[in-house]
Fold:
Amino acid sequence: MEKYPCLHMVDTMEGKEWEIWKCAFAGKTGETSSHLFLHCTFTAQIWSMFLNFLEVKWTMPEHTADLLSCWIRRGGSKRQKTWWNLIPHCIWWTVWKERNSRNFEDISNSIHKVKWNCIVSLYFWCKEIGLEDSDQLLEFIRILASPQHILNAEEYNVYQFSKKCAFAGSGTAASSL
Structure:
């Protein structure tokens, strides 16, 4: 049983003509928010893309709420902290849209297209709130992967971070920054 609220789509869609009981990407039964947004092999590829851009080593927490409490940018400008905080939301929004496209419209995009959609969404979100000055998407990607945006261990209080992100009872922590 999941510790936090989850997506039990059979219950949600009960009484309607739709019955969704498995992950649209991995085909696993019992779709939960933790599986869909963090642990699904499809979603993990999107997380890996961003973490590789940022040169961050990360162990995914068990639950979505745990990720949000651990996803803290220490150091850097207010602007960097703001776009850093947008990343999980952008990934989740993109995954949710693709999930619905597969479940309700019978349209499936490749992982490459979904990754591209996620980058484009982040770019436009940053532009909309005034975080990005560039009018060119490729310039945005270059800036995203530039040294001033790359995170390193000195910018974090690693001990506090790993303590906060430790998996309950497993003895492992998300401290490998």
